[in-house]
Amino acid sequence: MKKILALLLILALSISMFAACSSDNNANEAANTTSEAANTSTEEAKEDDKEEQITLRIYAQYSDDDTKVPYDYAVAELAKAYPNVTLELDIQAQDDGQKLQTYAATGNLPDIFQVGSTQIETFKESGNILVLDDYAKSTGFLDKAHPSAENIIYNADGHIYAFPYAGNELVMWYYNKAIFEEYGVEVPETYEELLEAIKVFNENDIIPMSIFAKEKWITTAMYDVLATRFAPEGITKLDAGMGKASEDAYVKAAETMQELVEAGMFPQGATNLNYDQAASLFYEGKAAMFLNGQWEIEGSTDKLGENADWMWYPVMPGYEANKFALSGGGAPGGYAVNPNSEHVDLAAEVAAFISEKYCEAKYMKRSNPILALEVNVQPEKPFPAMMEKLANEMGNITSTTKFAWGLTNPQFKVAIEDQSQFLMTPDYTPEQFIEELDKVIDRMNK
Amino acid sequence: MKKFFGNKWAIAAFTLPALILFTVMVFYPIVQVFYRSFFDWNGLTAGTFIGFDNFVRLFDDSVFKVANWNGVKFAALITIFQMTMATILALAVSNARIEGRNFFRVAYFIPVVLSVTVVCQLWLSIYNADTGLLNKLFEVMGLEYRQNWLTDGSKAIYAIAFVNAWQWMGYQFALILAGVKSIPQSYYEAAQIDGCTPMQAHTKVTIPLLKETYKFCLVISVTGGIKAFTEMFIMTSGGPGTSTYTLTYMMYSSAFRAGEFGYGLTAAAVLVLECLAAILVINFIFKSEKGVGDLK
Question: Diameter of chain A by CA atoms?
Answer without folding.
Answer: 96
